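Entry type: protein chain
Record version: 2
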Amino acid sequence: MAGLFITGTDTGVGKTLVSCALARGLRQAGIDVGVKPAETGVPASGPEDALALIQAARVEDALDLVCPLRFDLPAAPQASAKAEGRQADLEPVLSAYETLSERHTFMLVEGAGGILVPFDEQTTMADLALRLDLPVLVVARASLGTINHTLLTLEACSARGLDVLGVVLSHSTGALSEPDQHNLAVLKGELGTRLLGEVMPVSQFGAADPQDAGLARVLDRIERDRKPEVAR
């Protein structure tokens, strides 16, 4: 496994929080990790998610390589590009990925929004994950509505032939109400072994424990993929 595509069941579910935790954990495990998101809703101070990932991964790659596409409008890339009179061009993304994957042994690619969010008129985030030939990690919010959103995301991934590593639950909305807690327990039962981890509420990208973000399963998959197939 040369990398991982991180998607969410929705916007604001904690994809960057999980991505940063995994980047730190992989670095601590001695794995040279590169990061490459495309980002919308970028303030004047710069792409906050990309900058956080650069810091977590401790890379010195140019920002234009790590985040080759940046839009002001906080919407799907296709919508943001249209609103700004621009094109959401896939080629800079693919070129940046190729350059960074030659520098680093493992790539973390954080999608924008959910798996079916349109990158452009022909391409969704699912298409991008397939194009990059990366397994998918799904970040799901822990609050009410997550059962439907999570299972629909997994079904969409399966229908498109994506290799799903599993799901990480993110408490991005803070403490859960009693209905939320009961709802989440049902989802955990539905997921079974597909549940990789659970990130509790944290205030900063660097505060999440990599193990809570599913690091053990990611490392296990990396190790299994490194082993040569035994001749039969």
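Comment: The chain has one domain: 3-226.
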